[in-house]
Amino acid sequence: MSDQLRNEFLMPPAVYRGAPFWSWNDQLDSEELARQVRDMQAHGMGGFFMHSREGLETAYMGPEWLECIRETVKVAKAEGMGAWLYDEDRWPSGAAGGLVPARGGDAFRAKVVTLEEYAGPTQDTTDALAIFAATLQAGRIVSLRRISNQPAEGLANHQTLSSGETWLVLRREISGASEWFNDDAYADNLNPDAVAAFIDITYEAYRRQVGQEFGGTVPGIFTDEPNAFAVKVRSGRRALPWTDGLPEYFYQRRGYDLLNVLPWLFYEGEGAARRGTTIGAPLASGSPKLTHGNWVSGANVTGWLLLATICTSKKWATAFCAAAPSCLTTAINKCPALTCSPSKTASFSPSSSARALPANLDANG
Which of 8, 176, 187, 306 matches a 20 to 30 Å C-alpha distance to 356? Predict the structure, then answer.
């Protein structure tokens, strides 16, 4: 072992030391933050992630918050530490602590498409996307026909069901307010305009404040589980991720109405797998209609992508496993190839912090 390698092992530089998630809560004070930075440095840490957590009383992304970011980065630079940014108020990334849906209203709020079965007529179809008559057997579609392109007429005004048929009603549902998102909803990460708002509110704001340190004292930004189907987004009904621009985008790519075949993603049946692949291919292709483009910054992006909860079936996994997270993450930065699986949570890390090594490690370990 060379003397240089031995010395670096005993006293590793900051890039090889631990960088803990540092919870920011309560009313922030820049002097107290500076004290804690120096304390972490004195105990062998090489950096930290500035992570908004429960109990924060300082307005997230407000003037005081941004001032604390600026001052903490200055202290980190003086101490030779890495000050990693974190792109959300708690998690999952995309809503900017409710600021994104507050800017765009329902257009920027997360959505799902739901499916309900009715054995008889119901008058409440004013908010339906489409109505079908289907023959179902053991959770499989035997036959399917779309009834009307004007669902507001109500099921009672449509033709009578044939023997053995069931009404299928598709509805668009907007995610409701949640305390977790500061009394608003999660963001529609399949909507490029909502993603652009997230980048403007979060990434561009940080670039204006500390962009000169990107790639240096600020090695990068952590993104945490951006997705299109978070637990607080899902409906009490059977549901799949949705965005208002999806039918138009699909029609441009395939030349027919997505709603005509959407029930096949909720059921099994002859042709279901084929239709799932047909639906999924244009969504997973990375079209600019579902991705905002690259946010070029000079800062690395690291973090976790929440894929496991996006996919409720293999067919829908084909459709959204790539499309849903790429709308957000491709917009932030060009990330390396990641493996997309409906059964796994994928992660990507162009630049990662090494495991902690104690500063007082001696030759005997």
Answer: 306
Confidence of residue 122 (pLDDT cuts 50, 70, 90): low
Residues 338 and 213 both lie in one domain: yes
- pLDDT tens-digit profile of 246-261? 999 889 888 999 999 8
Distance between CA atoms of 259 and 149, rounded to whole angstroms?
10
**Contact criterion met (CB below 8 Å) for 309 and 229:** yes
Q: What single letter denotes the amino acid at residue 29?
A: D
CA distance 106 to 185: 9
Residue 62 vs residues 28, 66, 222, 327: alpha-carbon distances, Å: 12, 6, 19, 26
226-232-237-238 Cα dihedral, nearest 10 degrees:
20
Residues 40, 149 within the same domain: no
- Is 258 among the domain residues? no
Q: Is 10 found in the same domain as 118?
A: no
Q: Which domain holds residue 162?
A: 111-174
- Give the integer Cα–Cα distance in Å for 130 and 115: 10
Q: State residue 46's pLDDT score.
A: 97
Its pTM stands at 0.80
